[in-house]
């Protein structure tokens, strides 16, 4: 009985303290009281006080990290102090909420930037002084680790099919389709697999155009494209660069991370 009473009053307390957040015609209302204004352009939302003085912006970012893994977060900036932009997580009142509702909900509930008195500039400045750490799941963390490795390799494919890492030749493609050179992406379905070799002409792997599978010489395989819904679809038509990058991850011995080769000033010695 005592436990039931405690639960009842806990639920009642939550209900009584729950804020009714609504945005209509650019005006943010808390429990029916106007507290701030909002305008938007594309995925960026500008928050203003009731006198329409812009104070901060929230921009929604949704990007591909690697393969089918995407990351969504918000970028927050102060209008009166643009020295620093922060990237943080956001929340939504429901799974089907749009960006506007999510921006307002995050400002009120998570960041405490907007309260019943308006936009709390003190809390906004405190947010920039103590930026909350993002909460990434294991899959996204792993994707960023892979992305970091790929970026350090700085892989490019030149016009003759050579693979370069930081300007240094590390391998090459063979059995290239006729479209190579004019098309950056691989759309052809060829009877012969596109092969990848390292700089010492050792076979590293092959790309099967008919099944969109990348296979290493050691037996590992990866499907470049799978039919998936929405923005989660993997590369439909991969680039040669994407193949080289993925192969470098599948076979760590293929490309070693190295600094770009640079040559110093050449000085000519004069005879005595």
Give short descriptive properties of this protein.
272 residues; alpha+beta; seven-stranded antiparallel beta sheet; 5 helices
What would you say about this model in short?
The chain has 272 residues and is α+β, with helices and mostly antiparallel strands. Helix content is 24%, strand content 33%.
Explain this structure.
By secondary structure, the chain is an alpha+beta fold. It has helices spanning 2-17, 99-110, 121-129, 138-153, 240-250, and strands spanning 21-24, 27-30, 33-41, 44-48, 54-66, 69-78, 81-88, 114-115, 118-119, 155-157, 162-165, 168-174, 194-198, 203-208, 213-216, 221-223. The relative contact order is 0.10.
Q: How many helical elements?
A: 5
Report Rg.
Answer: 27 Å
- SSE series: HEEEEEEEHEEHHEEEEEEEH
Biggest sheet: strands, sense, closure? 7 strands, antiparallel
Mean pLDDT figure = 86
- What global shape is seen? elongated
Low-confidence stretches: 5-17, 227-233, 261-269
Strand elements, count: 16
Order of strands in the sheet with most strands: 1-2-3-4-5-6-7
Terminal CA distance: 106 Å
Reconstruct the topology from this structure.
Layout (H helix, E strand, L loop, with lengths): L1 H16 L3 E4 L2 E4 L2 E9 L2 E5 L5 E13 L2 E10 L2 E8 L10 H12 L3 E2 L2 E2 L1 H9 L8 H16 L1 E3 L4 E4 L2 E7 L19 E5 L4 E6 L4 E4 L4 E3 L16 H11 L22
Antiparallel strand pairs: 1-2, 2-3, 3-4, 4-5, 5-6, 6-7, 8-9, 10-11, 11-12, 12-13, 13-14, 14-15, 15-16
